[in-house]
Amino acid sequence: MTVGITWQQIALRLILASLAGLVIGYNRDEHGRPAGMRTVMLVTLTATLAMLQVNLLLPLRGKVYDSFNVMDLMRLPLGILSGIGFIGAGAIIKRKNDAVGVTTAATLWYSTMLGLLFGGGQLWLGSAATILALIVLGVMRHVEDFVPRAHRGTLTLRFADDYFQGQELEREILKLIQALHCDIHGVSVRYEPAKRLDMLRCELKWKAKGRQAAGMPHALEQLRSMTGVREFLWKE
């Protein structure tokens, strides 16, 4: 790798980093993870910008023959970006099965990198990075609304004491749930006595687009009025 770097090379690296962050972030969004496209893209671009700044500073002298001072370029981005991680961690709030503030933490980290760029004299690179951040935080927010995300929940049904249908009822309910586009990842049943279905519990997984509240799939509401259902319980 040459010491000098052209703006064409900078643009190519930023584009490739953005595409890498987009692909990985889309995958995380699709699987319902808190760190989605915007978060991963910001983190990827931040790391790219740190290395670009080091590359731009490489032509400067590291040490003259009569000095004990050494300019270690790699320590510059490493120290500052590691330190900002503590502030970013404070912006993340854990709520049940979700995390709030992950994008905020990534934005803080990214903003720190912008400060390094402007402070190091890479004004054009810093300006371009600012525009990129606005695109990621603004445009990508609307793109995320069209990404189907995975959600999970547990459905528990208890049945009336005088309703004897047993395995026939169990098969009917499981078939109905699958017809509602919900994947069943675990089933536990209780028969009491041996031929009467007393309780059925299902671990469900389904997909809903973007920022729609997970909640319970509306299609499952029809199970409430099903003959023989005494109790309907839902837990996310």
Describe the structure.
The mean pLDDT is 77. The chain contains 6 helices and 6 strands, in the order H-H-H-E-E-H-H-E-H-E-E-E. The strands form 2 sheets. It has a 4-stranded antiparallel β-sheet with strand order 4-5-3-6, covered by helices on one side. It folds into 2 domains: 7-144, no CATH class; 149-235, Ribosomal protein S6/Translation elongation factor EF1B (Alpha-Beta Plaits, 2-Layer Sandwich). It is an alpha+beta fold and 236 residues long.
Write the layout of secondary structure elements.
Elements: H1 7-30, H2 37-57, H3 75-90, E1 93-95, E2 98-100, H4 102-119, H5 123-144, E3 148-159, H6 167-179, E4 183-191, E5 197-209, E6 229-235
Antiparallel strand pairs: 1-2, 3-5, 3-6, 4-5
Helix pairs in contact: 1-2, 2-4, 2-5, 3-4, 4-5
